[in-house]
Design goal:
Layout lengths: L6 H7 L3 E2 L11 H16 L3 H7 L1 H13 L7 E4 L2 H9 L8 E6 L4 H10 L5 E6 L7 H11 L4 E5 L12 H6 L7 E5 L18 E6 L11 E4 L45 H16 L3 H22 L20 E5 L3 H13 L2 E2 L1 E3 L2 E5 L19
Parallel strand pairs: 1-10, 3-4, 3-5, 5-6, 6-7
Antiparallel strand pairs: 2-8, 7-8, 9-12, 11-12
Helix pairs in contact: 2-9, 4-9
Length: about 375
């Protein structure tokens, strides 16, 4: 249905079955033209290109993303090269000379896990984690943890990267954080542009992080944060973009910040990634491709895969080994829990020899699905030889 938009990536990958778009999505063809447009604009505008970017590309992307989040404040969207930069900038708003308490889960992506544990090496920083499993009781347990402690930062994923489980009760979790000084951060990387999303009721309360590397299909180098409406926090980790438009004013007194989401901006970055993401979002808007349509298509491909798996009767890769069995609670990838890491690595390597590209984390093997897949194209017969 959507293959027409991905001809260059599909041609380069030939007969491969790319079951890892949750790691690296193919880029639509329009992104190549966007890269060339970025070069041409850089040549045309030269010293004035920053003003051009912030007058055109940035507000256009803000409008697109705000629409996808269903917020009323596109000016609260700020960009960076990766979400980790944005995360650290948010954390830098806290006074690290004082006690800092962070609540999160045991299923966060490596960057946050690594950063949180590094911070926990400081005597005044405590990081408490709630187990993601069992999934059925996760929200209750996470809310109970919020109630049990006074936290400075609450951080969790909207979809867990190592299972695909969708946390549906985000509103309930955020509402449980009674202290308005507590920073609430939602990592939406595996949710944004995969599952329908609406944070309108939370736009004045949460930071929402996501980016283009996966389902937004703009590639690496373009991530964003929705900054809570009315936020007046002053990041310690800051750069010249955070005061863009006032660079010619005298530099005296307290450091000033933009009055909108740009107060969390950094410094000089490669805007070609923003051009790519804008091109994808322009394309989808022009073609009437909504997240609801994307989600329906991808979940149909997922069903086709599982139906073939049922017929295959694989001893390890079957519905019983799925971490998230309920499709309504699952993102755009399937995660199978295998006996151990060695078995998982071996099967992933065997699959690769049969042109089936997957990825794994420890003993969890992940199969992702994308817009450039069609149900009738799924052929997993080679799995019978991978044990």
């Amino acid at each position: 249905m959507f293959k027409q938009y991905y001809q260059r990536f599909l041609k380069e990958n030939g007969a491969k079955q790319h079951f890892s778009p949750h790691s690296h999505y193919f880029w639509p063809d329009v992104t190549r033209d966007a890269m060339l447009q970025y070069w041409d604009d850089s040549a045309r505008w030269v010293d004035d290109k920053w003003g051009h970017f912030f007058e055109t590309c940035v507000p256009q992307l803000q409008q697109h993303i705000s629409g996808l989040l269903n917020t009323t404040c596109p000016e609260q969207i700020v960009f960076a090269s990766n979400t980790h930069e944005l995360l650290f900038r948010i954390l830098s708003c806290k006074d690290w000379r004082r006690t800092l308490r962070i609540l999160s889960t045991d299923s966060e992506f490596h960057s946050f896990f690594r950063q949180a544990n590094r911070l926990a090496e400081l005597d005044n920083v405590t990081v408490n984690t709630v187990a993601a499993q069992p999934f059925a009781s996760f929200t209750d347990r996470f809310v109970a943890a919020i109630d049990d402690g006074q936290y400075d930062v609450v951080f969790l994923s909207h979809v867990f990267f190592n299972s695909g489980f969708v946390v549906k009760d985000i509103n309930r979790i955020v509402d449980a954080v009674a202290d308005s000084d507590t920073i609430v951060i939602i990592d939406g990387y595996h949710h944004f542009m995969a599952k329908p999303l609406d944070i309108r009721e939370l736009e004045s309360r949460i930071f929402y992080l996501a980016g283009g590397y996966k389902y937004a299909q703009g590639g690496e180098g373009v991530c964003f944060a929705h900054v809570p409406r009315g936020c007046r926090l002053r990041p310690l980790y800051t750069g010249w973009f955070a005061e863009f438009g006032a660079l010619d004013k005298p530099r005296a007194g307290e450091v000033q910040y933009s009055e909108d989401g740009m107060r969390f901006a950094g410094a000089t970055m490669d805007f070609s990634a923003l051009y790519r993401l804008r091109a994808v979002m322009d394309l989808f808007a022009d073609e009437g491709i909504t997240v609801d349509r994307i989600d329906a298509h991808v979940m149909a491909v997922q069903d086709a895969f599982l139906n073939q798996l049922d017929k295959l009767g694989h001893p390890l890769l079957n519905r019983q080994q799925l971490l998230v069995k309920d499709a309504a609670s699952r993102g755009h990838f399937l995660t199978f829990e295998l006996p151990d890491a060695d078995t998982t690595s071996r099967i992933a390597s065997q699959l690769k020899t049969h042109n089936m590209l997957t990825d794994y984390r420890d003993n969890r093997l992940r199969f992702g699905f994308a817009m450039y897949h069609d149900p009738q194209d799924i052929d997993i017969s080679a799995l019978a030889q991978c044990k």
